Amino acid sequence: MFSFLRWAFFAWLVLTSPAVLAEPPIVAAASSLQFVMPELAERFQAQGGAAMRVNYGASGNLSRQIAQGAPFALFLSADEQSVLTLYEAGLTKGAGVIYAVGRLAWLQPAERGDLPPGDAPLSAVREAIDAYRAGQGRPRIALANPEHAPYGVAARQALQHAGLWDAVAPLRLLGENVSQAARFALADEARGGLVAYSLALAPAVAEQAEHRLIPADWHAPLRQRMVLMPAPGDSARAFYDWLQGQEAGAVFARFGFQPPGDVDGR
After folding, report:
1. pTM for the full model?
2. pLDDT at residue 107 above 70?
3. Its family (predicted)?
């Protein structure tokens, strides 16, 4: 018994030590935020805010992790439904807010064929289909998996709008999330891909690629909603509030996101 009490006391000291208690809150963030989130977190810290740990992934996958008990404090989704489903299940602190409206873009490696014109932004997909049917190779078209990635859903809708979804089936290269889809779009075997506009604008991507914005009415609006978990802590709550301010809004805008009030994404 004495040994057990000593062990329990030691465990209590470890778990309540400042080093453990000071662990940064974990933020679950959609992959479309991979390049914008580091700047947001850095600016928040520069103004006296706490450090954040960020886990990126497809919104559907992150939502499932939360439902299974993942210790996130804040969830920034690339859609609304992933958040609202959690809210309806009683797993969040309220229904959250829309923090940005995303856009979809065609992304292709620099100098890999002509960039599609603005009035036919998916012409490269049609060319890839024609080349495949003519036996001229298998130029792949990358997109995020629509089963759990909101930008994958938007990509499917855009391809359906252009009448290309079924025809492009043998050429599809599905990423686990939209960030992976962007990497696939720049691979040697790819003609390009449909990805988040925010990723296409990131300097690390823009220096090796070119892009064409997809008309907003070719897919459902990408209303991106964020929400706090039931016991987020003061630091995560402060970051949540800060993300709704003007400075954060300016950073989002620079990466191609539109403001929350622009719910139609136009």
Report:
1. 0.89
2. yes
3. Belongs to the bacterial solute-binding protein ModA family.
Helices (H) and strands (E) in the chain, counts: 12, 10
User: 110 Cβ partners below 8 Å, 6+ apart?
Assistant: 208, 209, 210
Report the CATH number that the domain containing residue 156 is assigned in CATH: 3.40.190.10
- Residue 63 annotated as lining a ligand binding site: no
| Domain residue limits at 182 | 104-218
Closest by alpha carbon to 145, among 123, 119, 173, 175? Answer: 175
Give residue 131's pLDDT band: very low, low, confident or very high (50, 70, 90): very high
- 260 domain-assigned: no
- Residue whose tokens read 């923090």: 99
SS3 category, 195? strand
Contact, 92 vs 75, CB < 8 A?
A: yes
Polymer length in residues for the chain: 266
* Residues 205 and 139 occupy one common structural domain: yes
**In the predicted model, what is the mean pLDDT of residues 39-60?**
97
Q: How far apart are CA 197 and CA 208, in angstroms?
A: 15
Tokens of 195: 């990805």
- Tell me how far CA of residue 212 lies from CA of 116, 157, 176, 193, in angstroms: 7, 17, 22, 11
Q: Are strands 93-102 and 104-109 parallel, antiparallel or unpaired?
A: unpaired
Q: Are strands 53-57 and 26-30 parallel, antiparallel or unpaired?
A: parallel
- Note whether 226 and 214 are same-domain residues: no
Is residue 202 very low, low, confident or very high in pLDDT (cuts 50, 70, 90)?
very high
Q: Write out the two tokens for 24.
A: 């940064």
Q: Is 32 annotated as a binding residue?
A: yes
Q: Which of 10-19, 71-80, 146-155, 224-233 is least confident?
A: 10-19
The reply to whether 3 sits in an annotated binding site is no
